[in-house]
Amino acid sequence: METLEFIIYPDGRVQEKVTGIVGASCAEVTAAIEAQLGQVLSQQSTSEFFAAKVQQSGVANTQSAFSDW
């Protein structure tokens, strides 16, 4: 599940945490929000950022063999 979490501090700083989005596409999701919030002071990538998307194909190969024991 994709989630965006925001912590707004009394001094006006906003901490944003993105979870559930694999790869660099999280930057696309948050770009418009960050543009409205103001200047980004720092970014820290999580392990999900560096993970590769896994794609599964719908093809399964099976093989059955019966023995004459």
Write the layout of secondary structure elements.
Layout: E1 3-8, E2 14-19, H1 25-37, H2 47-50
Antiparallel strand pairs: 1-2
| Largest sheet geometry | 2 strands, antiparallel
What is the strand content? 15-25%
Whole-number radius of gyration? Answer: 21 Å
Structural shape: rod-shaped
* N- to C-terminal distance: 50 Å
Topology as a string of helices (H) and strands (E): EEHH
Helix/strand structural class: alpha+beta
**Uncertain spans, ≥5 residues at pLDDT below 50?**
none
Average predicted confidence as pLDDT: 81
Helix content bin: 10-25%
Number of helices: 2
Order the strands across the largest sheet as they lie in space. Answer: 1-2
Number of strands: 2
Protein name: DUF2997 domain-containing protein
InterPro entries: DUF2997 (IPR021375)
How would you characterize the overall build of this protein?
- There is one protein chain.
- By secondary structure, the chain is α+β, with helices and mostly antiparallel strands.
- It has a domain of 36 residues.
- The chain has a two-stranded antiparallel sheet with strand order 1-2.
- Strand 1 and strand 2 form a beta hairpin.
- It holds the Pfam family DUF2997.
- This is DUF2997 domain-containing protein.
- InterPro entries: DUF2997 (IPR021375).
- It comes from Chlorogloeopsis fritschii PCC 6912.
Structure, briefly:
It contains 2 helices and 2 strands. By secondary structure, the chain is an alpha+beta fold.
Label this structure with key terms:
alpha+beta, 69 residues, 25% helix, two-stranded antiparallel sheet, 2 strands, DUF2997 domain-containing protein
